[in-house]
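EI: anyone free to look at a 362-residue chain?
SC: sure, send it
EI:
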Amino acid sequence: MAQEVRGVIAPGKNEPVRIETIVVPDPGPGEAVVQVQACGVCHTDLHYKQGGINDDFPFLLGHEAAGVVESVGAGVTDVAPGDFVILNWRAVCGNCRACRRGRPWYCFATHNATQKMTLASTGQELSPALGIGAFADKTLVAAGQCTKVDPAAAPAVAGLLGCGVMAGIGAAINTGNVGRGDSVAVIGCGGVGDAAIAGSRLAGAEKIIAVDIDDRKLTTAKNIGATHTVNSKDTDPVEAIRELTGGFGADVVIEAVGRPETYKQAFYARDLAGTVVLVGVPTPEMKLELPLLDVFGRGGALKSSWYGDCLPDRDFPMLINLYLQGRLDLEAFVTETIGLDEVEKAFERMHGGDVLRSVVTL
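SC: here you go
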């Protein structure tokens, strides 16, 4: 039987979010209803609210979530009611050319729930953020979006692996192939950049250089694992990174801003044959211009990292285990816990750079 629950809705472009009663249908074939326990306030949710993703309003916001499976539809075998899960926004198909080649993290046919959640007042269909919509007491997702993990993990930290923290850790480990003894520079020390620092530390990097224009963020980056910091408002970051790496540049430079200016910094701050990883999300109008001879002459690799090239069923349980072993400090990413009615204020604090992550707990 369909259920009515609370959910945070973005009704229109740049309009304040509000709590509405939403209708969550019973799960159909291949679907699951999840009781949400915690959901991080990610910058992507703000992009949805601002109309920066698309104009399919109203949006049911929230996607960086953990909770408990309440019910499943026909044919679901990987998760069952009572399972503690992290939600992901890339349920792989298993049949596309990437999946068949053994590279499911590149799946070209990821999917979400078929049914739609709706507004109780009007019956209008909602567009769930990244196919999840977890600023709600319960949400409907494709069962493949549920990744079972150890229930000993606190929901407020586990859910962060569903997006930003996974994107950053994966950019370092999966995409950048950071290894023992490497030098790494991370440009942009928000949630994703700090996660890339944590991932580089996990991988055994010898030198981890955090670059940002905000000293508060650089202090947090140092606490998470950066060995050196550079305030690029006052210092040329390319020269600073080279100086810290014997004049050569870093083995891996991770760009977590998503702007042409910072990408160029990353390009020139890497060692010859080094790797640049773009994990910051650019906007559609941005253009990049580089001398082609420099691209040719420096060799190495220029990569983009989408969702940290992760495979949720492989990576989420592994990272939760590292957290439970005390080797990955996920608590460091949680600045505050809030209620559903505080999401609009959380966006304001995010915009001001006052938080690393606000987490809604239910």
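EI: DSSP finds eleven helices and 18 strands in the chain.
SC: 👍
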